Each structure stands twice: as structure tokens, then as C-alpha cells.
Amino acid sequence: MGEDELVHLHGGLVTAAEAMATGWTRSRLKRSLDAGRLIRLRQGVYTAAGRWESAGRRERHQLVLRAHQRLNPAVAGRGLSAIAALGLPLPAEVEADPVARRPDLLRLTPGDVAIRVGRGPKLASLPQIVADAARLLPIEWALAVADAAVFRGLITVDELRTAELRPGVPGAAAARWVLDRVRARVESPLESLARAAIILGGFPEPVPQQLVPTARGIYRVDLLDAEARVIVEADGKGKYGSTRFRSDRHDDPVWDEKLRADALQRRGFAVVRFVMADYYARSPFLAEYAAARNRRP
User: Fold this and answer.
1) What is the pTM of this model?
2) Which of 52, 65, 145, 212 could form a disulfide with 77 if both were Cys (CB 3.0 to 4.6 A apart)?
3) Distance between CA 186 and CA 121 in Å, rounded?
4) Sheet holding 75-77, edge to edge
């Protein structure tokens, strides 16, 4: 029995004991590891090299967590490992090789709640994962994690907001800030980062995913301050469609975006764009946003 068949037989992971029960020897395991045909995910638990190489970031984190749980069922993934395993947003600078770093694990007690999405590993509860995000990540990214969990239907806003957070726990204050501001309908991490930048900049919170009627039809915009008549576009990729005048749309997305912006501006809205670079250096964006809010109609 080859490596791929062995691993497939055991659901994508195989322990040393399971391999030897099928007739493998320790020396054969060592040869397969040395040759790179097996990948060690933790001491005594392996997957096939082909499976690992074809896996994305999310599946790799899931495999590593499942490897730890194969030998210790009383642990659940938490922190950055759980965020990555769920496919929730993480900043590029905190990405890590799931094998090179020890996964974040929570030893379950009888009162703990664990979740499992599909056939993935056991994970800590979503409120715990959001609290971990607030402890481990910039608060803007913790908000992106919470917004994404709600958007994907993993948990509701009310369920997050009513979660019990113990006072005095590291990150509890940041977690409460996030839980008070998590919103439904936020469609991308960039929208969360833009909204957080605006709030932390001292401005009223804009409302995500609002419909704005124009002469060309009704457009859905990322963030809207209706009182100041300011729109924030958090991606600029022209993903929004008009409910009218479909026949005059062009194949050029840049031209479509210009027509859309012109239609919104004719309604008296200022349109400000937010790109990822604005998260890292937000002063120019906030200055432009302030100017848009303070302009004369």
C-alpha cells in the first residue's frame, strides 16, 4: 500500500500506529518521510505530500489541527489557527506556515463549547475566536474577522453580541469594541477595514451595503454616510450592478465605474475610495474623507 492510499484510507491523516496496523514498519515510515512522500504534521501523525501540496492555506491549517486532535481529542483550535482554518480574513504579515508554528489550541473542559464546520477540525466557539482575534490582531482586522463570520452565516450579530466575555481577560475590552460594531452584510475585509478606519478617525459610523437611487438606476454602495452624503468605495472593481439601463452598460469595467460614479455625484454624493494601502497609511484617506463630509452641497 502506497502513501496516497494509506493516507486516503484514514481520512487524509494517518498515525504511526495506524500505518503499522496496515503492515508498514517504522523504517518504511522513515524512508517515506526522508524522501518527502509523507509530511509530518505533528509527532506521529502524517499526510501524503501530494495532498499537502495541493491544499490551500485553509485546508493546511485544518489538517494540522486535525492531526493534533487525532492524538488528543480534548483540544480545539483557537486564535490564528482557527481563523485560518475557517478561511476568515488575516493580514498578510501574520500569515504563518501551519507546520512551522505550533497551532493555537484550547484544552476543552466540560463547560466549553466547540464547533465544527463540515468535516473540519473542532474549533473554539465563534465568540472565543473573535475575542482571540481582538487579542492577537489589530482591532481593524478583528472587526474584519467578526464581520466575515456573520456574512458567511457562521454566527449572527445577536449571537456574537450576547456572548459572555469575562472582564479582565486579555483583549476583553478590544473584543467588546468589536462585538459592539460587528454588522451584517459586510461583503469584504476591505469594507471592514475602511469602516474601522472611519470610526477610529472620530467620524460617525457609515452604514454598509446601502441602495442609492440615481438616474441610471439603483446602485448598491459599500459604505454610506447618508447625512453627509458621502459614499466610500472599498474595492473600486465595479462589482455593483444597476437595476435599470442594463442595455447601456459597456464591457469596459473602468468606463462602467465612471458612469456609476458620475450618476452618484449628480445625486449630490461625494465618492471616496479606500484601498489596502489606505489601511497602512490612512492619513490621506481620512483627510479626503473629512473634506468630503465638510464640503458645501
Assistant:
1) 0.86
2) 65
3) 26
4) 105-107, 75-77, 123-124, 114-115
The domain locations on the chain are 1-54, 55-184, 189-294
Grid coordinates belonging to 194 = 475602511
Counting residues of the chain whose pLDDT is more than 90, the rounded percentage is 70
DSSP letter at 295 equals: S
Angle formed by the axes of helices 283-294 and 189-200, nearest 10°:
70
Flag whether pLDDT at 49 surpasses 70. yes
Pick the more confident residue, 169 or 21.
Answer: 21
Distances (CA, A) of 268 to 19, 108, 216, 230, 275: 69, 55, 14, 9, 23
Confidence (pLDDT) at 205: 97
Burial of 91 (0-12, 13-18, 19+ CB in 10 A): middle
Give me the residue label for grid cell 481520512.
Answer: 11
Helix axes 139-151, 172-181, angle to 10 degrees: 50
**Cα angle, residue 101 at apex, residues 97 and 103 outer, rounded to 5°:** 105
Contact 112, 76 (CB under 8 A): yes
Task: Name, in order, each residue with C-beta under 8 angstroms of 295's C-beta and a sequence gap of 6 or more.
Answer: 270
What is the per-residue burial (b if ≥16 Cβ within 10 Å, else e) of 55-74? beebbbbbbbbbbbbbeeee
